[in-house]
Design a protein that fits this description.
Protein name: CN hydrolase domain-containing protein
Largest sheet: 7 strands, mixed
Number of domains: 1
GO molecular function: omega-amidase activity
Shape: globular
CATH class: Alpha Beta
Bound molecules: 2-oxoglutaric acid
CATH topology: Nitrilase/N-carbamoyl-D-aminoacid amidohydrolase
Number of strands: 15
Keywords: Hydrolase
Radius of gyration: 19 Å
GO biological process, one term: asparagine metabolic process
Organism: Fraxinus pennsylvanica
Length: about 300
């Protein structure tokens, strides 16, 4: 029996809910794109990829982390867009909105540098089939790394961390959003699972140091821990870039199995999602019932404060 030291609404058992989504079987598209210094070209290129994915049957399409700008602290302020100021101030999100509406697809729009007042964020926008912005996720865990001789990168030099977990109901299920380094923090994924997520989407640009060891295993772990689908989307690798992305965009199922993946070049992955596999997994192995809330608990701070 769960102890009562936390208010009921703040306790987070795993995989508590399974809300019935409007669609349970559909195709997802993961667009692993080459990113250049030419923003206009990046936007056009992403548009073409979204169109190709939709044409191949994808109802949900995911873009990479920072797809309209080089991934660098020098570039973030230059390429940043004021998303809240409307589409005139944000050509990247204007394109996403238009394409979502015209092609009748849901878009998890990777991420772009966002300017808000005097702050910059690494931000993912989710657009529904009506072209409306359904959610905006600002990367919560900034990526600061210093491995001597291998990689030094400090997002915190220019970016501000987001403060809010983002879970969104779409026509293709309830989706929890994280950006790249957010995937390392299992509590965020558990929180989404406890709020009924079917799928976690992580636009991400892992690198040549941590990518080979961790990118896939982190996705499989988040899927296994929470018995749900996990999708990731990376930029294609550019060995001449200041930050070299690992690539390997991937879809993982609720058994922790890799359903689709790719190497490091440009690619559009189309793969099937079937949410009945989540129900099956949870029926076969009911972690929710085995969970020991009397021994450990995770607090949903938003619920606690609401
Ligand atoms: O966590 C890692 O190892 C990589 C994270 C990353 O590349 C990012 O957050 O952009």
């Amino acid at each position: 029996m769960a102890s009562s030291f936390l208010p009921e609404q703040a306790r987070v058992p795993p995989s508590l809910q399974f809300p019935f989504p409007p669609v349970t079987k559909f195709k997802i598209g993961l667009c692993q794109l080459k990113v250049t210094a030419d923003k206009e070209n990046n936007i056009l290129h992403a548009r073409t990829a979204l169109e190709e994915a939709a044409q191949k049957g994808a109802k949900l399409v995911l873009l990479p982390e920072i797809w309209n700008s080089p991934y660098s602290n020098d570039s973030f302020p230059v390429y940043a867009e004021e998303i809240d100021a409307g589409f005139d101030a944000s050509p990247s999100t204007a394109m996403l909105s238009e394409v979502a509406r015209l092609l009748n697809i849901t878009i998890v729009g990777g991420s772009i540098p966002e300017r808000s007042g005097d702050k910059l964020y690494n931000t993912c926008c989710v657009f529904g089939t009506d072209g409306k912005l359904k959610a905006k996720h600002r990367k919560i865990h900034l990526f600061d790394i210093d491995v001597p001789g291998e990689i030094i990168f400090k997002e915190s030099k220019t970016l501000t961390a987001g403060e809010t977990p983002t879970i969104v109901d779409t026509e293709v299920g309830r989706i929890g959003i994280g950006i790249c380094h957010d995937i390392r923090f299992p509590e965020l994924a558990m929180l989404y699972a406890s709020r009924g997520a079917h799928l976690l989407c992580y636009p991400g640009a892992f690198n040549m140091t941590t990518g080979p060891f961790l990118w896939e295993v982190l996705q499989r772990a988040r899927a296994l821990d929470n018995q749900l689908y996990v999708a990731s989307c990376s930029p294609a690798r550019d060995v001449g870039a200041g930050y070299v992305a690992w690539g390997h965009s991937t879809l993982v199922g609720p058994f922790g199995e890799v359903l689709a993946t790719t190497e490091h070049g440009e690619a559009i992955i189309i793969s099937d999602i079937d949410y009945s596999q989540i129900e099956l997994m949870r029926k076969n192995l009911p972690l929710e019932k085995q969970w020991r809330g009397d021994v450990y608990q995770l607090v949903d701070v938003q619920r606690l404060n609401s």
